[in-house]
Amino acid sequence: MISPELLRPYRFFASLTEEQLKDIAMIGEEKTFPADSIIFKENTTADNLMLLLEGGVELFYSGGGAGCAANAPVCSIVPGAIFGVSSLIKPYQYTASARATKPVKVVDINGARLREMSEKNLTLGNVLINNVAAAVLARLR
C-alpha cells in the first residue's frame, strides 16, 4: 500500500477522483530494481502496471525472430511515465521486455486487481483505458 499523494502529481493519475486514487493506492507498492536488471520479459503474463518514480527504463524486444533484431530497443521510459500497460489490455501479455538502465524506483500496481476495480467501476475503467491510450500514443510520437 502507498499513499494516494504519491500518485496525484503524475499525469496518468491526475484525472482520477480522490476515492479512485485511494483505491489504486491500496493495491500499489514501491519497489526498487538495480541497474541492468530485467523488470519483466516479453511474452509473459502482464501482472503489473508501473509508474517510474526514479531512474530509467528501456523497453526492448528480446526475441528477434524472422526479420527482427534481437534486443531491439522500443523506447525509453522516463520518471513520471507508466509502463507495463499490457496489464490492462487483453490478452494481458507483455509485448516487450523492460530493463532498468540505472537504479530504478517504481510504484508497482497489481494489474489483475486494477482490472477488477475497473470492471466494477466503469467510469474508472474508462479513464484508465483513455490514459493508457494517451500514454501509448505519446510514445509513438
Secondary structure: elements and pairs:
Blueprint: H1 4-7, H2 18-26, E1 28-33, E2 38-40, E3 48-54, E4 57-61, E5 72-77, E6 82-83, E7 97-100, E8 104-110, H3 111-120, H4 122-140
Antiparallel strand pairs: 1-8, 2-7, 3-6, 3-8, 4-5, 4-7
Helix pairs in contact: 3-4
Question: If helices are DSSP runs of H or I spanning 4 or more residues, what is the number of helices?
Answer: 4
Going by CATH, the architecture of the domain at 30-120 would be: Sandwich
The coarse silhouette is globular
Name the poorly predicted regions. none
CATH superfamily of the domain at 30-120: Jelly Rolls
The CATH class name of the domain at 30-120 reads: Mainly Beta
Q: What is the helix/strand order?
A: HHEEEEEEEEHH
- β-strand amount: 25-35%
How many DSSP E strands?
8
CATH overall fold name of the domain at 30-120:
Jelly Rolls
The end-to-end span amounts to 33 Å
Describe the sheet with the most strands: 4 strands, antiparallel
- Largest sheet: spatial strand order: 1-8-3-6
